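WARN retry 2 of 3 for item q-0093 after timeout on previous attempt; input resubmitted unchanged.
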Amino acid sequence: MPAPTQAPPTHITPAATEPVAAPAAGFWRAFHTPHLVAGYPVTGQQVVFGLLLVFCLTPWASPPVALALGLVLAQTLGNPFLSQTKAATAKLLQYSVVGLGFGMNAHAAVQAGREGILFTVASIFGTLVLGYLAGRWLGLGRHVTHLISCGTAICGGSAIAAVGPVLHAKDEEMSVALGTVFVLNAIALFAFPPIGHALAMTQQQFGLWCAIAIHDTSSVVGAAKVYGDQALQVATTVKLARALWIIPVSIGTAMLFKQKGVKITIPYFIFGFIAAMLLNTYVPALHPLGPVLVNLAKIGLTLTLFFIGAGLSAKIVRSVGARPYVLGVLLWVVISSVSLCVILHTV
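OK item q-0093 returned
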């Protein structure tokens, strides 16, 4: 009996069994794959970052636009130079602030600072007390509560960076406080100018409100720059006078938390701003150079906000958790609304 014939075996190619990558995944992967350009490995992610950076150097890039571009980059492709931009942000902001001093008059600055001193003292101490009480109510740790309160009361990330070592705060506590403040800074930069126009605030009123109610110096100057030159001068002067409170608050923190042998951070760049302002006021020969330096300072500020946005990834936002945001928003809403009402009725 003849042997039964067997059906030929069915050959399955490896390609049929391997999962096919989604087109979207392949699209994003292509941006992170390095290619040799003039002998150097370059990724599409780095090219996009470079193009956005160049755009921020042009007159079409305002501070809110630069921040928005940085945020979009952080949420999509990511920042390929995260460590470098973090290191450059603080110095770039400081140099930009000093440059703005070459566009200001000392006499006008003294007047603006005199008008803002009472608001400054009352808002700082009021915010610190409210932050302590609200932090206890929310069950937050003392260090995180104090860091967020100082950031809201004085000058955002700069205050947190100065007070953190005094507290011997842990890295995660610093990250939570900085993440909270930076998110609210981004919101304020977009929200404040439309509110100011809707309420028909004067340049003086808006500059004063920015300096008191917005955390970080970069966002204060960015929002005021959009509103007008006079608002920019008032906001910068009052905010930097406010930033000097880092020193007494750091000393008070060391005493309150019973920390010994700590080093107090002094914001020396503020004295550079004062020196630039005095030179612009009393050395007429420097007047032709003033507009050039001020323009460079504004470009530096725009780049600063792009770097800040590019460092604010979704992972950082999620890692903060709900309660620190609740504390930050509560303090921010109170100081914004109270200072707005006082300014509208007194200035």
